[in-house]
Write a structure and sequence with these properties.
alpha/beta, TIM Barrel, 2 domains, eight-stranded parallel β-barrel, two-stranded antiparallel ribbon, 10 strands
């Protein structure tokens, strides 16, 4: 089973038996005061530069999030997606919890996008899944619901199963569901990484679906975060991680991912690994 997202003359495939791809995380105002300020002023200069730079660094998909204080997402998100498409041929991950903004942004994108995201809340499923079905998009599925994010693997798994069944009731194909088993900060709960990886392993082994995660969350509050992020992602690849949302500029990340793909049997005979080495 493989998930396919498209861009301008570009197609990105990912899945449990395919090489890992990167969803570039940097177009997100959370924790980025300069970007948040620009977006609140309706400016898109930093956004364009981030899209170009992430493409050059090897991001396979570009996440676009304009959810800053003072921003009308319904108005700005479509404009942001349009500007990103002008400077990169990469597929787009449209990142918003606002259904009207999502629909407006999808409608101006002539390619198959990844919607980020739906969760296990009934309201979320009823608002987002019809949009996904009508537009032929793929969607990120967060393993949380009205009770928040559980530290129990079985509860996260049950939410994943609920979303999957609801999505299939709308006629959404399983290959268009990309499950996010949720990465929490390991510095505040030493079991966070284990919980995420165990959930991911159970979801992929049971349903055969693609996965993603906000990989950088794991290292908040710790020194040398890049080292922790790289090791977490290689561990993730061995447990079913297909398309991490991360910073493609992390030194050594892409080489580590290629090594993990080879060791996980997702790069037959190490052809991608060898090509990168050469």
């Amino acid at each position: 089973m493989e998930t396919i997202i498209t861009g301008n003359n570009c197609e990105v495939k990912f899945g449990l038996e395919l090489p890992t791809v990167i969803i570039g995380e940097r177009i997100n105002p959370t924790g980025r005061k300069t970007l948040a300020k620009e977006l609140s002023e309706g400016k898109l200069d930093i956004l364009r530069e981030d899209a170009k730079k992430q493409t050059e660094e090897g991001s396979d998909i570009i996440d676009v999030n304009v959810g800053a204080v003072g921003v009308d997402e319904v108005e700005l998100l479509p404009l942001a997606v349009k500007e990103v498409m002008k400077v990169t041929d990469r597929p787009i991950c449209i990142d918003s919890s606002n259904p009207k903004a999502l629909r407006a942004a999808i409608e101006i994108c002539s390619y198959k996008v990844l919607v980020n995201s739906v969760n296990g809340k009934e309201e979320s499923m009823e608002e987002i899944l019809p949009i996904v079905k009508e537009t032929g998009s793929a969607v990120v599925c967060l393993t949380m619901d009205e009770e928040g994010i559980s530290d129990d693997v079985d509860k996260r798994f049950a939410i994943a199963e609920k979303i999957l069944k609801k999505a299939e009731s709308y006629g959404i194909k399983r290959e268009d569901l990309v499950f996010d088993c949720l990465v929490m900060t390991n510095s505040t709960n030493s079991d966070s990484a284990k919980i995420t990886l165990a959930t991911m392993r159970k979801v992929t082994q049971t349903f055969g679906v693609s996965t993603t995660c906000g990989a950088s969350n794991i290292s908040f509050g710790m020194p040398n975060r890049d080292l922790l992020n790289i090791h977490f992602m290689t561990m993730g690849i061995l447990n079913g991680l297909c398309a991490p949302i991360t910073d493609s500029s992390i030194k050594g990340l892409k080489k580590a991912m290629k090594a993990a793909d080879f060791l996980a049997g997702r790069d037959p005979y190490g052809m991608n690994y060898i090509a990168d080495y050469r």
